[in-house]
């Protein structure tokens, strides 16, 4: 009976790393959602802007960012627990890109400055590309988890550009 319990225990995941991963996911989602608490797209200014034909339904943004921030949390956890020599650089780049990420929403919605927001998102794209490369050097899975993020930032940059262009 003891041998059976031991074999089952060996097959169960270690709870500490799993709890750490969940903690990273929650932390990244909390940080990523802060600008949405302070700024909103429900303003008269934003509602009157002309939007491109490919502007998605509003719910798309909440769903996409939740999925992306969840993937970022997992990727960050993978890099955090690595002992790779590139770990420090990858973590530093991640922190910088998150700071830039959270500045876009207030620049666009609170300051009502699509051109400034476009500049921010271009810088963000470069930082995300660098972070993706740095994460991939530490852990290929972590780098792969950032691919949807750079795709979404690319789409958001095009969307930001078009909103600026249509309303300039």
TrEMBL record:
The chain crosses the membrane at residues 18-38, 58-80, 89-109, 115-136, 143-164. GO terms for cellular component: membrane. It is found in: Membrane. Signal peptide: none annotated. One of its GO terms (biological process) is tetrapyrrole metabolic process. InterPro entries: TspO/MBR-related_sf, TspO_MBR. This is TspO and MBR related proteins. It comes from Natronorubrum daqingense.
